Amino acid sequence: MNEENRKLKEDIIAYSKQIGIDKIGFASAGVFTGLKERLKTQQELNFQSGFEEPDIEKRTKPELLVPKAKSIIAIALAYPSKMKNAPRSTREDRRGIFCRASWGTDYHDILREKLRLLETFIKERHPQAIMKSMVDTGELSDRAVAERAGIGWSGKNCAIITPEFGSYVYLGEMVTTIPFEPDTPLEDNCGTCNKCVEVCPTGALVQGGQLESNKCIAFLTQTKGFLAEEYRTKLGNRLYGCDTCQTVCPENKGKDFHLHPEMEPDPEIVKPKLKPLLTISNREFKENFGKISGSWRGKKPIQRNAIIALAHYKDTSAIPDLLSLIKNDPRPVIRGTAAWAIGRIGDPQPQTLEVLKSHLTTEQDPDVLKELEKGLAMLVE
């Protein structure tokens, strides 16, 4: 690497600190050969979620994204792991929870702005440079890039673990035609620890570093259809995402950083009361939850998960609301999940049984009919 690029790298590192980037690393833009084989295995086993880029070539060959790519700049921003003034869930007002990665302003927006500032900074000093930045939804694997760039090692929980911030970091990257000297990857520090694999609620962590994505609660909370019954009892009060494999990680013990005000959670938004969610309008949902990343799939998955959470709590006070959904909600997933939840709560009042039985004769949707039958069967056991 010539002296000009060496100096530019130093300047970029210094500037990244000025704009609030907590960690930065540089990697080559060569083919991600090991990742390519892992992704092929994931596809063969049908372990992918469906949210990721399906083209393995694009995910592993940076040159397909930026012709003559030479380097990738990886960035990481630390987010809080503890909520100040968290409201308590009470018997009268049960609450759900959004995962930590959905606290505060949508991290995609925060990191894209940091990368935009970096691009501008580099362009002023190297006008001929070509750059392409991405966060989470881009073609490249954020984790593979961060690992190669020395941001952290790839943990058994399939997260990047940094020595400074644990795995509570957001990742982003920029592919560029500038040849920077690459940083050294970190040594894997998971060792014999296997806690994340052992406690994964659904067994989605098949083994250290291998995730069956379509069984992961973080994925399941974002789906829009009926949740398979085997997973409903695993959801707990989670409305979006899952933090279990992070909270049990010894590397995360004592890690809690409040470096970015825009990442601070609004306790009433990220730990909301469940019953009001059942009837929230599209407008209210957008106004209240639109700024957090957990809102990207709209209100339907959140409402379905709220119904399942009320069933988890066996909240009998929610039964009138659930019956109202069965009677009035136009969406089969919501009607059916409400019927199942009533059965799970298990309070066989005559009026409850009457509503479920009457809807067995009027309901047209076959999936909802199945859930009505399940709900009734649980109530009369």
Describe the secondary structure blueprint for this structure.
Layout: H1 3-18, E1 23-28, H2 33-45, H3 56-60, E2 71-78, E3 97-98, H4 107-125, E4 131-134, H5 142-148, E5 153-154, E6 160-161, E7 169-176, H6 195-199, E8 205-207, E9 210-211, H7 217-220, H8 229-232, E10 238-240, H9 244-247, H10 267-270, H11 274-277, H12 282-289, H13 299-313, H14 319-328, H15 332-345, H16 350-362, H17 366-379
Parallel strand pairs: 3-10
Antiparallel strand pairs: 1-2, 2-7, 4-7, 5-6, 8-9
Written account of the structure:
This protein is α+β, with helices and mostly antiparallel strands and 381 residues long. It folds into 2 domains: 3-82 and 103-176, no CATH class; 195-379, no CATH class. Helix content is 42%, strand content 10%. It has helices spanning 3-18, 33-45, 56-60, 107-125, 142-148, 195-199, 217-220, 229-232, 244-247, 267-270, 274-277, 282-289, 299-313, 319-328, 332-345, 350-362, 366-379; strands spanning 23-28, 71-78, 97-98, 131-134, 153-154, 160-161, 169-176, 205-207, 210-211, 238-240. The protein has a 4-stranded antiparallel β-sheet, sandwiched between helices. Strand 5 (153-154) and strand 6 (160-161) form a beta hairpin. Helix 1 runs antiparallel to helix 4, helix 14 packs antiparallel against helix 15 (332-345) and helix 15 runs parallel beside helix 17 (366-379). The longest helix is centred in the first third of the chain and has 19 residues, at 107-125. The protein is elongated. The relative contact order is 0.13. The model has no long low-confidence stretch (mean pLDDT 94).
